């Protein structure tokens, strides 16, 4: 039996999403619900993989299956492909498992040629429509399949329009369209050295190949990289009978959502255009009208649409994004899929659907992408300082949040400025998928054209960027690097402010405030707490971070990087003094100063965190981070230390390392200079004793030893720590409980964790260093080539953000198994950057980690991910 590459839409169902993409899979479901859907077939993602590997040479089986299914569409529609009196026309669209709006290609009106266009004219009784469709088809096919530049085609229309002194495409007469078609064909002949293909089957095969090929176009690859979508998922291709929204004024096309995708409000929402084809909306070239206008124009179809949207939502149990076409007052559904939504809408919809009993608690938790929660923390305009007299214009509020930034007029400029660390707002007439890099690099987007479902709006929402579309009274002069907004001129580099929640554009900088989190967000967090097993702690080195951690309900501090407490100006010199000291006496002097500073900091930290566990890591600074680099700094240091500049330079030179990340850092420094550990232990224990006394608390400080690779390093450090603590107990005539633990960052430590286990109370995986040392990848430099590695699939994701389960993960499992064998009471944590990565959290949950500790603003992500991990474990 040859492999099945093609499924007729009646064979499709939602369980076949991997194979048919979500569009293709859902077509079968819509049909089952007795909703009028245009006849179609889907070519599988496996065919995509096959064709990409085989240079787009079709197997006999594929060819045969496409032709058989084409016959089925002909039977369904009672029209015939290539027939000159009753032609069947097709759309050829991409459709991946995970929707990638606008990133791949689509071809409409396929099957038109010099003969079938006459058939279309006769069938529709509308000559202009027929020739306009043919004109559109040649242009689309020319650009997408034959690779002719869009500008060449646009120039032809623009020239004709200016010759005839008309403004709109719709004002072109049939004869004009015929003239355009002739010129288009000449352009194609000139550019490709071949005639425009008249044979519909040839057109179909080339179009299918081109759409499959678009899986690997630049913008699709970029989108997948940004959204962590696997490159090996591939796209399906949907071939569907055309219905025409551009037939007459009783026709139209649109996109609607069963709920508002920007706010999550349970209200029918969408846009449509009279006498238009789908691409007119998606590309943002024309600005559509709100769907409510349809009610006044075609009441029956409007209410039909609302009913269908509710039916689909109930069936799929999720908010639906539905594309429809009305042809001569007859409503067709072209596709439905779970709608993309803003993070705010995702949380609201999940919590509302839970209240409506449409979904369960567990389903509600699984509905929200943990990563997207970070975007909820977007800023808004400070209500106390809103100055309405600065409003320049009002556009459509396409993606919420507020942003102030400098104007840039191209994606490249946005990218360039972003690299310099500048915050920019990208202004475009409309965005095309080519702008994705620019959208990623900017803080906000303002477009002249396009509605709420245009490319800019959809992409900005998905990326959590502020976006205002259809900015009225906006004139863009890209070459002159200026824009005129409401008669005021702004140049690239000038500041404006966007409020993506109202659509207002303001002149200049505005005060912004951090978002306050909605009740729905709080509800989701409470719900997550109910299901999660992993404990969530915060990585906090400052009081501010500790307080944010507490605000997000962190159950303690999982990592306090003590070297980070020395970043400020007045302290960094004391550290430098210690590092540069060339005898014990001088080092001790610096340490005595540091003791005062550290003890004070720990007192505040203990007071803030009350009795919650706090893991304080002993100093682990790569020396190079703390040594002065610039001449001015070196001079300042020599003055502060009262030593000649030459001596400072000499010392800096002697401490210079070729490979500092594998150098004199972590406990290596403390083993060479035990006085550092003595000072830090003193600061920690004395602070805890004093706070316990003052607050009558029972703080149990936890001291963590970094970067050990051999148990003897732990033994040596532990001996110093305990000796110092006992000394303090004697001096203060007090005792307190404390814990000593180790970081697992060196592969050797992971492999010998059974030896560590006897000496310690806890192990914390420093997955940043563990990844660096296991993969032999520099934390500082590997980003130069990692992107390529990910593109080749050598790593599925950046191993510094998502744990490499096969390598680093295996070491973690070995560590836990060996250590538990020797000490059943050991506690295991993760405090590297992976601690807030949803996929890594799932893995940590499964291998028996007790807690994860992450940066403060990522705590909600970690909490939701931990709940999801538990639910996914239960359901598997
Ligand atoms: C780690 O290595 O994962 C870690 C938490 O330590 P640092 O990032 O400070 O090296
Ligand atoms: Mg580390």
What does this molecule look like?
With 876 residues, this protein is of the alpha/beta class. It contains 34 helices and 33 strands. The chain is 47% helix and 17% strand. The strands form seven sheets. It has an eight-stranded mixed β-sheet. An eight-stranded parallel β-barrel has the order 26-27-28-29-30-31-32-33, surrounded by four helices. Helix 6 runs antiparallel to helix 7, helix 14 crosses helix 18 and helix 20 runs antiparallel to helix 21. The two termini are 33 Å apart. Bound molecules: phosphoenolpyruvate (PEP) and magnesium ion. The site of phosphoenolpyruvate has 10 residues, from strand 27 and helix 30.
Side by side, the strands of the main sheet go 14-24-23-16-17-18-19-15
Shape: elongated
Ions, cofactors and other bound molecules: phosphoenolpyruvate, magnesium ion
Oligomeric state of the chains?
single chain
**Percent range for β-strand residues:** 15-25%
Structural class: alpha/beta
| Helical proportion, percent range | 40-55%
Number of helices: 34
Poorly predicted ranges: none
Mean pLDDT: 91
The Rg value, from CA coordinates, equals 32 Å
**How many E-type strands?**
33
The description of the largest β-sheet is: 8 strands, mixed
N-to-C terminal Cα separation, in Å?
A: 33 Å
